[in-house]
Amino acid sequence: MIVSPQSFGSLLHLHPHLRSVLSLGVFTRDGVFYPAPEDIDFGPLEDLFREEVFKTFLEQEKITYERIEFVRSWKHSGFRVFAERRIAQGERQEIESLLQYMEPDRCHSKG
User: Fold this and answer.
1) Model confidence at 61, in pLDDT bands (50, 70, 90)?
2) Domain count of the chain?
3) For 73-84, how does the pLDDT look when each residue is reduced to its tens digit (9 = 90+)?
4) Are residue 28 and residue 45 in the same domain, yes or no?
């Protein structure tokens, strides 16, 4: 999993968020890949990811317990797993395009 912090917006309408890329499955130690089911429910993953982000931000003193409780009280958590864009194995150009979208200033070719 790759996670990239984003900070779009302005001082009045700040829109910080995280983008991530991950494989939809797991690899064994000997390199065999087992794909996740097509109809996987991402709700629990979304909850786990939110709590891990809160934990990390707390450890780095980037957020307070009060702010976490405030965000937890929202009807919509502010966290969403978007899994509609899937890239097939071997589609290197598609993967590079996605990573450049996440980190345009860091993912450029040197030529």
Assistant:
1) very high
2) 2
3) 988 877 777 777
4) no
76 and 49 in one domain? yes
DSSP letter, residue 36: P
Q: Are 79 and 49 in contact (CB under 8 A)?
A: yes
Residue count of the chain, please give it.
111
Both 60 and 33 in a single domain? no
What's the pTM value of the predicted model, to 2 decimals? 0.60
Mean pLDDT of the chain: 81
97: domain range?
Answer: 1-40+89-111
CA distances from 41 to 8, 28, 35, 36, 51 (A): 29, 22, 14, 10, 17
Residues 54 and 67 sit within 8 Å (Cβ to Cβ): no
